[in-house]
Write a structure and sequence with these properties.
Blueprint (H helix, E strand, L loop, with lengths): L3 E5 L11 E6 L12 E6 L2 E6 L15 H10 L4 E10 L9 E3 L2 E5 L24 H13 L4 E3 L2 E5 L7 H9 L4 E3 L5 H7 L4 E9 L12 H23 L27 H6 L1 H8 L4
Helix pairs in contact: 2-5
């Protein structure tokens, strides 16, 4: 099966001269329309799908993103791997702004987001102990190094609801949990990617020290955007490097994650459920009949 790399985030990353056969795909899903059109392009032998999760002009707050529609759109467009580009604050002194963390765990402190495809007429419990595909993460670390980034291999991402930044008390609390970075978009994206059987990993782009740091300037939109602009080309290089070294998706823990996760008996599934979730469950229904 040909590799198709889905990239979530990075509104300007697909504007690259190295890309060929660039197209805009208007996609609809059973969960509504994604944040915007998906940009499809080719780099070498790999097709890439780009979706700015905040929409054109960054008009969607983290809480108003339709994560289900976004991940479903990637799956329906043929993605075989899914990578998230995420601006984050550092919760550790040794992880500095401008550096990159390839996350391997998450803490979910979000409060009001739909976090599963399986909440209406069907139940599934996917394994999520290791939420990041280790093979994809390994290739991302190598790609980041080839791209010239200072990269940290592994770390926990705490995802908060936002859109406000943390209080100092909250920041110190999260830091006490031993996390590496803090952000607002990895959840429920990572959960939905596992339900969609897509190998998933996060490139956490560090922009600030959050507000726990006593000497660094407190986090602000101005400072975040300044660091992101200076590191945009680095994110582009990482994606291009990764596109040439994607691992075999069939060896990922995400592969066939639904095979042992579907609980609802096939005879109890209504026609509407089968139609709405056919793009996810059809390969597994005969196995549970």
């Amino acid at each position: 099966m040909a590799n198709v790399l889905g990239v979530m985030g990075g509104s300007g990353i697909y504007d690259l001269p190295q890309l060929e056969d660039v197209q805009r795909l208007d996609v609809d899903t059973p969960f509504g329309r994604p944040s915007g059109p998906i940009v499809s392009a080719r780099h070498g032998e790999t097709r890439l799908l780009f979706l700015p999760r905040h929409g054109a002009g960054h008009r969607l707050s983290p809480s108003n993103i339709d994560y289900r529609a976004n991940v479903a759109a990637m799956k329906l467009c043929g993605a075989t791997h899914l990578v998230s580009l995420s601006a984050v604050g550092s919760m550790r002194e040794d992880i500095a702004p401008g550096e990159v963390v390839i996350v391997d765990q998450y803490l979910d402190f979000t409060k009001q987001r739909a976090s599963t495809f399986f909440d209406d007429g069907i139940v599934a419990h996917v394994g999520f102990g290791d939420p990041v595909c280790p093979l994809l993460a390994r290739e991302l670390v190598a790609a980041a190094k080839r791209a010239g980034a200072t990269v940290h291999d592994g770390g926990t991402y705490v995802c908060i609801e936002g859109p406000q930044f943390s209080t100092r008390a909250e920041s110190r609390f999260y830091r006490s949990l031993g996390v590496s970075v803090i952000g607002m978009t990895a959840m429920p994206e990572a959960k939905l990617a596992r339900e969609a059987e897509l190998p998933y990993a996060t490139v956490a782009l560090v922009t600030d020290y959050d507000c726990w740091h006593e000497t660094a300037e407190s986090v602000s939109v101005h400072n975040v955007l300044a660091v992101l602009r200076s590191n945009a080309d680095q994110a582009q290089r990482i994606v291009l490097e990764l596109s040439q070294s994607l691992p075999d998706a069939t060896h990922s823990p995400a592969h066939r994650a639904l095979a042992s996760a579907l609980i609802t008996a096939p005879e109890a599934l209504g026609a509407e459920v089968r139609s709405r979730l056919g793009f996810l469950i059809s390969p597994h229904l005969s196995e549970h009949s």
